[in-house]
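quick one before i forget lol
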Amino acid sequence: MKKIKVQNMDGIIEEVDLVNSFNVKDINRNFVILSKGEKVREGMNKVYVSEIIEETPGNYSLIGITDESVWDKVKQAMKEIVQGGEA
């Protein structure tokens, strides 16, 4: 799995696993699914979904999804990815 460096909302730079990245075409914004390797239970890791912006080459900032209509579009895009379509 590809590792990327992100700046979290507290300003701390972390190296995380990039599970998937996608663009929501309706709003032309980029989102990622990330993992820090935290176990939820056996065989399952906790994942994070966030908007992502490349601040400088190779360094990214995460932006929390606070707008419910944006979150609905992100969930729909993820559903389409799981079902084998494109976001």
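fyi The two ends are 21 Å apart (CA to CA).
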